[in-house]
């Protein structure tokens, strides 16, 4: 069977499977695989041009080298950033040894060949030829950035390490000290392996209940302290990122109010300590004393509770030991406390328990009580999920139509590989391994949705945009479950299927029914939706015969590091961050570019080439589309982004989540950003609408709600915290320190008979960074003053004050000693400072700037004389010249300040454009300011994330 492109589609042959998870000898055939991307007789590696590159990654703040590997091999179409991240994050072996990987071929082969060998061993393929084709297809897709497995696959598969492939884990803890201590240990092991974990603490009895010995219980919040301290000391993956964790508590737990206010109370403490002079910035010297900061907190709410909020009625808090109501609260008051705490510090998020369990495929085995740290994986306790994400822009044709058939075939390949990985995977604990092998939870997802919508002329917050997103998501999950049903006919359904068959089938019907409710608007979403409908019908039929191989198929993860690996413009389900981005250049340096999706969007909207050029040029200068020449106002919304002049309204994000949630097995990793002016009532509205719209989880972040953020030092009003308060934001320059080793020069000089030395140190990439002046006897007043003066100038240079500003201030300053010098370029000096700064100008400023200041070398003056040009008087500048020089210095100071505060990431670039600080942490690896990625943060500089995928 062929698709509309004439490509041969994958088929599955074999008889229906029994309940057992392992294939019976001779009972079933494997799948037959046909080529989609590759050509018979041509290896994917032979179809691309390879080149060698040097990877040198430095710390953005101090210029120190974080990582270096030269001569690595990549395809020529891979970006510098993708090459840097894959080389530094995913290549295995000690740097500088023969065992170190040095080519993308080695990395892909290490992973793909492991998958294929396991597939052959476990009976997935009908013939060796099918296995070879499968290998080539996966290789092509990874090579061309069509999809990527999650980071633990690249870290571990095919190495001597444990073959941990899962990024997301859910643990469990019971009301015993042994179980609590096991929780600490298991979390640590998961963090060490490069992943994240979440759990629900609601089984632990509250601080309002008695122990069997007669004493009072500590309550779950007290045990959170120990786990938080442990997470703060373990770097996830050993070196690349901090631990990621989620802590959940049920809304009917008697300690829920303490849990809700845990992090907001710490935020008040941070403010008090900061005001007392302590360094409470993120990573500051005194910030380690703050508790509960290493976890995302979420309250698990029930429909009963939400109805009590709706009706303003009482809600009962129940004992953990016998389930009896031990106290009552007003549902609306408790809901207000949740919203107020989230308004103050972004925690807790909210998870909708009854909605989550209504879509549960394995209800007979147990309820879903928790999620992974980013809230996209939700299934049984003591289980795990491995993730993979497709790059949606790879399926956009040149005519701006979405290739639904190709996308469906790609999903089949990826979901097959993901299921194979469970056959050979290792797990951090035996209980997690047992559950995962029994239920085989997978998490296929996508990245670049925001870019795709913009490129096709859809506003993110529009009916058309939501229809296309919903149709694509439906097709993805429908195809994944159809392939899962086909695999069940080959290698058997998941072991837990027989017990949960009725529940699983019910959820499949719910997905198919939700697909029928999608309203289409344009050619793209109609085509995708039509194929999705066919796929769901086929999947239900095949699953009815065979069962399904996987209890879960899809999630929408943050796609942080792997999004950069695939050169994606946007992550997960997110819109674009801004219209102008930061881009690293080969050979060093960076530049500001307009997103490449903008011209495609303008093309989709019908603009001509000349109009597109003018609009793009306007965006490059202004960073937004407002009043762009020739752009119709009704098209502005297409270019709305997460941040900037026209940012998407918070409810727009929630509506997009609601459009895709019915077609996701798990949930969506996303934080809804709110402006600083948002109110507690608006947070309540988002949380309440999330429940009404059928979301499984929701988290918000209000700008500047946290004190511990770089560049933000706003102080809020100490009045009613329910109301938004205006904050004064102080913009502080960032000090760029010199590296330990730096170029320097020493100049001896004589001014009016006084001898001295000028030592000048510079940055490796050029630019003066420090001076030291030795003048006078050691210990004398003059020597001490000059030392202090040198330190002051050096610190100023490192904070970005331009050298020419200092030169304009200190040249021609008159005091003794003054007179003749021994420098042929500066024969007379009106003071030592006059000499020193004119000498520094000659050594470190370009000719154009020195010409404005009237400072030239002797050769330059001779050249001017020979050309009959009047030479500026370097020794005696008249008043008019002095005024013009100072005016120029002021203008240059203004423009150079812009240059000196350089952007190291898209977030920092956006800060410069908006004139305000963004609430994002600095990367602990390279110092770059991170950007939001789902409910986590991502570093564009080195690929580190604060999440678990």
Automatic annotation (TrEMBL):
PANTHER family: RIBONUCLEOSIDE-DIPHOSPHATE REDUCTASE, VITAMIN B12-DEPENDENT RIBONUCLEOTIDE REDUCTASE. It comes from Saccharopolyspora flava. Keywords: Cobalamin, Cobalt, Disulfide bond, DNA synthesis, Nucleotide-binding, Oxidoreductase. Its cofactor is adenosylcob(III)alamin. GO terms for molecular function: cobalamin binding; cobalt ion binding; nucleotide binding; ribonucleoside-diphosphate reductase activity, thioredoxin disulfide as acceptor. One of its GO terms (biological process) is DNA biosynthetic process. Signal peptide: none annotated. Belongs to the ribonucleoside diphosphate reductase class-2 family. Residues 166-701 form the Ribonucleotide reductase large subunit C-terminal domain. This is Vitamin B12-dependent ribonucleotide reductase. Its EC number is 1.17.4.1. Residues 14-24 have a biased composition (Low complexity). Catalyzes the reduction of ribonucleotides to deoxyribonucleotides. May function to provide a pool of deoxyribonucleotide precursors for DNA repair during oxygen limitation and/or for immediate growth after restoration of oxygen. InterPro entries: RdRp_reductase_class-2 (IPR050862), RNR_2_N (IPR013678), RNR_lg_C (IPR000788), RNR_NrdJ/NrdZ (IPR013344), TSCPD_dom (IPR024434).
């Amino acid at each position: 069977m062929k698709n509309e492109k004439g490509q041969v589609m994958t088929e599955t042959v074999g008889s229906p499977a029994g309940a057992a998870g392992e294939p019976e000898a001779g009972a079933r055939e494997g799948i037959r695989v046909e080529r989609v991307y590759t050509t018979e007789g041509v290896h994917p590696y032979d179809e691309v041009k390879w080149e060698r590159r040097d990877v040198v990654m430095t710390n953005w703040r101090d210029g120190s080298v974080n990582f270096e590997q030269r001569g690595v091999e990549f395809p020529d179409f891979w970006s510098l950033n993708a090459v840097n991240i894959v080389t530094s994050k995913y290549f295995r072996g000690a740097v500088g040894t023969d065992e170190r990987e040095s080519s993308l071929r080695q990395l892909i082969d290490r992973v793909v060949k492991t998958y294929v060998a396991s597939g052959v061993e476990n009976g997935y393929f009908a013939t060796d030829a099918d296995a070879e084709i499968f290998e080539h297809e996966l290789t092509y897709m990874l090579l061309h950035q069509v999809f990527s497995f999650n980071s633990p696959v690249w870290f571990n598969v095919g190495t001597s390490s444990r073959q941990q492939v899962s990024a997301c884990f859910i643990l469990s803890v019971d009301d015993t000290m042994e179980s609590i201590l096991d929780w600490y240990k298991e979390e640590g092991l998961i963090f060490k392996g490069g992943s994240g974990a979440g759990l629900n603490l609601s089984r632990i009895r509250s601080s309002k209940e008695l122990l069997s010995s007669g004493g009072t219980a500590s309550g779950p919040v007290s045990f959170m302290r120990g786990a938080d301290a442990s997470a703060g000391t373990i770097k996830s993956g050993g070196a690349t990122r901090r631990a990621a964790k989620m802590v959940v508590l049920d809304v009917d737990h008697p300690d829920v109010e303490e849990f809700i206010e845990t992090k907001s109370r710490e935020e008040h403490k941070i403010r008090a300590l900061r005001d007392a002079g302590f360094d409470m910035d993120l990573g500051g010297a005194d910030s380690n004393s703050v508790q509960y900061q290493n976890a995302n907190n979420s309250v698990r709410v029930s429909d009963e509770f939400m109805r009590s909020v709706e009706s303003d009625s009482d809600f009962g808090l129940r004992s953990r030991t016998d389930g009896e109501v031990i106290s009552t609260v007003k549902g609306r008051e408790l809901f207000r406390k949740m919203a107020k705490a989230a308004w103050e510090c972004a925690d807790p998020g909210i998870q909708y328990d009854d909605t989550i369990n209504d879509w549960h495929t394995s209800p007979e085995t147990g309820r879903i009580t928790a999620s992974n740290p980013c809230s996209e994986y939700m299934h049984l306790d003591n289980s795990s999920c491995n993730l993979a994400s497709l790059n949606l822009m790879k399926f956009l044709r040149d005519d701006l139509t979405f290739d639904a058939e190709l996308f469906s075939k790609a999903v089949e390949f990826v979901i097959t590989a993901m299921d194979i990985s469970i056959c050979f995977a290792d797990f951090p604990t035996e209980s997690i391994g047992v559950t995962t092998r029994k239920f085989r939870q997978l998490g296929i997802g996508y990245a670049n949705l925001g870019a795709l919508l913009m490129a096709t002329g859809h506003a993110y917050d529009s009916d058309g945009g939501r229809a296309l997103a919903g149709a694509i998501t439906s097709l993805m999950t429908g195809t994944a479950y159809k392939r899962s049903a086909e695999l069940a006919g080959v290698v058997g359904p998941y072991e837990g299927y027989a017990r949960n068959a009725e529940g699983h089938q019910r959820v499949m019907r719910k997905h198919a029914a939700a697909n029928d409710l999608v309203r289409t608007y344009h050619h793209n979403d109609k085509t995708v939706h039509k194929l999705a409908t066919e796929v769901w019908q086929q999947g239900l039929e095949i699953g009815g015969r065979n069962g399904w191989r996987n209890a879960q198929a899809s999630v929408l993860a943050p796609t942080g590091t792997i999004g950069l690996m695939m050169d994606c413009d946007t992550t997960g389900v997110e819109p674009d961050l801004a219209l102008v981005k930061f881009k690293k250049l080969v050979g060093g340096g960076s530049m500001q570019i307009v997103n490449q999706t903008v011209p495609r969007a303008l093309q989709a909207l019908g603009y001509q080439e000349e109009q597109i050029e003018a609009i793009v040029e306007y965006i490059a200068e202004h960073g937004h589309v407002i009043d762009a020449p020739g752009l119709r106002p009704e098209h502005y919304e297409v270019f709305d982004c997460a941040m900037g002049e026209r940012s998407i309204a918070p409810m727009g994000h929630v509506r997009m989540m609601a459009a895709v949630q019915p077609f996701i097995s798990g949930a969506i990793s996303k934080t809804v950003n709110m402006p600083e002016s948002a109110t507690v009532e608006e947070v309540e509205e988002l949380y309440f609408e999330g429940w009404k719209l059928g979301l499984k989880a929701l988290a918000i972040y209000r700008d500047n709600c946290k004190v511990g953020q770089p560049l933000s030092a706003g102080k809020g009003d100490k009045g009613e915290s329910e109301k938004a308060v205006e904050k004064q934001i102080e913009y502080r320059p960032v000090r760029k320190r010199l590296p330990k080793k730096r170029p320097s020069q020493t100049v001896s000089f004589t001014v009016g008979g006084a001898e001295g030395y000028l030592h000048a140190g510079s940055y490796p990439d050029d630019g003066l960074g420090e001076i030291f002046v030795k003048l006078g006897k050691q210990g004398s007043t003059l020597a001490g003053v000059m030392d202090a003066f040198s330190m002051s100038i050096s610190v100023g240079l490192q904070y970005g004050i331009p050298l020419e500003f200092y030169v304009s201030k200190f040249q021609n300053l008159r005091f003794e000693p003054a007179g003749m010098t021994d420098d042929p370029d500066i024969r007379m000096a009106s003071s030592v400072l006059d000499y020193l700064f004119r000498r520094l100008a000659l050594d470190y400023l370009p000719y154009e700037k020195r010409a404005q200041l009237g400072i030239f070398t002797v050769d330059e003056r001779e050249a001017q004389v020979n050309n009959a040009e009047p030479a500026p008087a370097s020794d005696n500048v008249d008043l008019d010249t002095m005024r013009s020089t100072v005016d120029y210095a002021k203008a240059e100071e203004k423009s150079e300040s812009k240059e000196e505060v350089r952007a190291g990431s898209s977030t920092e670039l956006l800060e410069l454009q908006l004139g305000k600080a963004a609430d994002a942490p600095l990367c602990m690896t390279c110092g770059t300011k991170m950007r939001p990625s789902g409910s986590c943060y991502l570093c564009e500089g080195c690929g580190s994330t604060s999440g678990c995928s």
